[in-house]
Amino acid sequence: MKRALISISTAQGAKGLFSRFKEKLSGFKEALSSKIAEKVSLAEKMAGKKDEKLEKNGKGQEANSKAISPPAEKNVGQNIGQKPSSLSSASPSSAPPTSPAKNGEANSKPKNRFSFLEKAKSLIFEQEVILEEKDLEEPMWALEMALMESDVALPVAEEIVREVKSDLVGKKKKIGADTGAIAEQSLRNALLTILSRNYLDFDEYIKTKEKPVKILFVGVNGTGKTTSIAKVARYLMNQSYSVVLAAGDTFRAGAIEQLEVHGNNLGLKVVKHKTGGDPAAVIFDSIEYAKAHNKDVVLADTAGRLHTNINLMDQMRKIVRVTKPDLLIFVDEAIAGNDAVERARLFNESVPIGGSILTKTDADAKGGSAISIAYITGKPVLFLGVGQTYPDLVKFEPGWLVDRLMGEAEA
Ligand SMILES: Nc1nc2c(ncn2[C@@H]2O[C@H](COP(=O)(O)OP(=O)(O)OP(=O)(O)O)[C@@H](O)[C@H]2O)c(=O)[nH]1
Ligand SMILES: [Mg+2]
Fold first, then answer.
1. CB 387 near ligand 1, within 6 Å
2. Rounded (5°) CA angle 353-356-362
3. What tens digit of pLDDT does each residue of 362-379 get?
4. In sequence order, what are the residues at sequence separation of 6 or more whose Cβ sits closer than 8 angstroms to the Cβ of residue 43?
5. Is residue 372 within 8 Å of 156, Cβ to Cβ?
6. For the chain, which has fewer Cβ within 10 Å, the N-terminal or C-terminal residue?
C-alpha cells in the first residue's frame, strides 16, 4: 500500500483538545461542591444551635469550656468580631484556668483528628468545614468514573483517586470560598505527581549522550512513526545537531520514498537499501555513516507492526540486537486511548522501550493515554504530536499537559 505522501503542511486546529476529559470532570466537581455545600449548611445550623446553647448556659459552664476549648489560634480574635456576642464570652481571656486534674483528663483522651471539639472550633471560630472520608465517597466515585470514561487505565485512575482523596481528607474548607477550586487544585496536584514520575529531559539526554546517539522508532502501523522522525529531526536541527535518517522500513511499499521526501524537505541524508532488504543492515549502515561523518544523531525508521505478529516482532528484536540503539522510542496515537497504552506495554515487554511519543494529541478529546502510558510502561513520554506540520511537536512537560487537561490553556 502506497501512502499518499506527506500531507504535512496544514496544522490541525487544537479546538476540542481533551474536551471530553474536561466535560467528564464536571461531575466530580459538582459532587464535591454539593457535598461541601451540604456540610456548610449543616455547619451553619450547628453554629446557630451552639450560639443558643451558649446564650442559655452562660459563660462559666464547664461543659461549654470543654466543648469550645480555649482557641490558641491568633485569628480567633478577628473572627470573633464577626460572631454573635455570646461567643466572645468563651474567649481565651475570659475562660477560667483549667485545673491540672482536668488537663490530665483532657490529655488522656484519644486524639481524634476530626473530633467534635476540633470541628466546633473550626466551624465556629474559623468558619471552616473539614472534609471527611465519608464525605468523599460520592465525589471520588464520580472522579473514578470520569477518568475511566476518559480512557485512563484502571490502575492509573485508582492511583489518581487515592492521591486526590488523601489530599482532600482532613482538608479545611473556608466557608464561602470557591468550592470548584478545591477540586481542581487537588486533581491538578495528583495529575502532576503521576505525570512527573518517569520524567526524562530529552534535551539533556541528547546533550550528554555519546555521539552519534542512535534512536530507533517502533510501533504499530500508521501511528505516526515516520512523521515523528521528521519532526524530531527538525527539533534537533533547531538545536544545531546534525542528523541522519535511516530508512529502516523496508517492508511497506513507498515507505523509503516517504522518508526521502522528509529528508529532502529538511536537507538531510537518508541512508537506504531496497524495499524488501534487511532493516537491521540499513540501520547498521546509517550508524556507520554517522560515525564516519561525525553526525550527532541517527533517527531510524522501522515498519509498522502489530504486537501479535510474531515474525515482525522477532524481526524487531533482531534490529535491536544488531544495531544496539541508545533509545528505543515507542510511537502510538493518543486517540487510540487504552489500546495505545496496552500496545506500549506489550512492545515494552518484547524490547524494553526508553520512552514514548504520543501522536495525534490534537485530535484527542479524552486524554487517557497521555495520562496512563508513562505510568503503565514505567517509561517517560518524550513528545506529543499535536498536528501534521513539522513544528507540531511538543516536548513533554507534565505542567504543560495538566494545564491543557484542566482547561487552562489551549495547545
Ligand atoms: N493530526 C495529526 N496527524 C498526524 C500526527 N502525526 C502523524 N500524523 C499523520 O498520521 C498519518 C500516518 O503517519 P506516518 O508517519 O506515515 O505513520 P507511520 O507510523 O510511519 O505509518 P507506517 O509506516 O505505515 O507504520 C499521516 O497522515 C500523518 O500526517 C499528529 O501528531 N497529528
Ligand atoms: Mg512509517
1. yes
2. 165
3. 998 889 999 999 999 999
4. 123, 129, 175
5. yes
6. N
| Secondary structure (DSSP) of 346-357 | HHHHHS--SEEE
- Report the run of H or E that residue 395 belongs to, with start and end: strand 393-395
pTM for this predicted structure:
0.79
Of the listed ranges 106-115, 247-256, 308-317, the one predicted with least confidence: 106-115
Phi-psi map region of 211: left, alpha, beta (phi>0 left; psi -120 to 50 alpha): beta
- Asked if 229 and 352 touch (Cβ cutoff 8 Å), the reply is no
pLDDT in tens, 172-187: 666 556 667 788 888 9
Q: Provide the 3-class DSSP secondary structure of residue 216.
A: strand
Q: Report d(CA 336, CA 351) in Å as an integer.
A: 21
- Nearest ligand 1 atom to the CA of 4 is 27
**Residue 394 DSSP code:** E
Q: Ligand 1 pocket test: which of 359, 390, 396 has the largest number of ligand atoms within 8 Å of its C-beta? A: 359
Written as nine digits, the cell of 322 is 544488531
Q: Is 248 in the pocket of ligand 1 (CB under 6 A)?
A: no
Question: Ligand 2 centroid vs 305 CA: distance in angstroms?
Answer: 10
Is residue 6 in contact with ligand 1, taking CB distance under 6 Å? no
Residue 281 and residue 196 in contact, taking contact as beta carbons nearer than 8 Å: no
The CA distance from 151 to 145, in Å, is 10
> Rounded CA gap, 215 and 223, in Å?
17
Nearest CA to ligand 1 atom 21: 222
97: cis peptide before it, omega within 30°?
A: no
**What crossing angle do the helices spanning 368-377 and 398-405 adopt, rounded to 10°?**
140
Q: Quick one: which of 388, 383, 400, 401 has its CA closest to 236?
A: 383
**359: Cα within 13 Å, side-chain hemisphere:** 26
**Dihedral pair phi/psi, residue 356, rounded to 5°:** -130, 155
Helix H or strand E encompassing 271: strand 269-271
285-289 mean pLDDT: 98
